[in-house]
Amino acid sequence: MKYFLNIILILLLASACVPLKQFDEIKDENELLSDEAEEATQENDALKVQNRELESDLNRYKNKVELLARDTARLGRQNRRLQRRYDDLNANYADVLGGLKATSTKDVDNKKLLSFLQQLQEDLQKREDDLMNAEQALIDKKRNLREAQQELETAQNELSEKNQRLAELEALLNKKDDAMHALKSSISNALTGFSSDELQVYMKNGKVYVSLEEKLLFPSGRYDVNEEGQRALKKIGRVLENNNDINIVVEGHTDNIPYRGKAELQDNWDLSVKRATSVVRILISNSKLPPSRITAAGRGEHIPLVNGKDTASLQRNRRTEIILTPRWSEVLDLLDMNDQ
Q: pLDDT, tens digit, for every residue of 11-28?
């Protein structure tokens, strides 16, 4: 007898793990999508910071180029002055040398002339050395100027590329946001015949939520969708089939009162999974939505909207949510291009 009881207990535990496994898988998928969206936002902010840094580098390179250009012009003027002085001294040297030759036969103090000539030659050599140093400094400045201009051009190209990527990323994020707002409006317009105490359509964290009250979809403790709920789901499905760029998750939620319905269900978690799959089946069977785009998840009583045991609180927590999330593949591809 004890052996058979153990077998029954093992089977019950195994069947109870199915909703938990589904819940964990959906939870991981939602967290992954949220992480991708957060990563895209952070990368967008990081690109803005990088652009500001590049603009600062660009200004620094511009200042460096302007300074080198001024130095180059100054050295050019100095070089020309030295060249003129060198030419004047060289002419004076030639004049003195010619005069010395002309007076070499006369009675003149040649020693004084030779001393003056030697001094003039030394001065001339010094001027020539200064001129050569100035020419070399000018060559170095011109080389530095070319290098600075190349660095400036590289920085400008890099900044231009970053600005283009940033503009593309912001345009893509804005496009996603506009598409989700348009989707929300389309769903709201399709469900105008239903009251706010039956369903709500709203946006949160870049996602569109369609929250359907239990009384619109299911009898108490059941998971078969009633006629009015099917009518609402068909309208939603026709809107979603025209939006291929979103992921769809259907989550079932219950209150925290223990389930005491049919024996085919074990608990609230099991009930929430059954309700989610019932909604998914109706969406798929009444639209062109491919099953690969939709995920069903049961949350049980573990994510209530409000805390409380009064009738109104319990009623609010008994709901089914259709969560529509934009696909981030294009954004992530663009971010991968930025990392390369």
A: 333 333 335 555 555 556
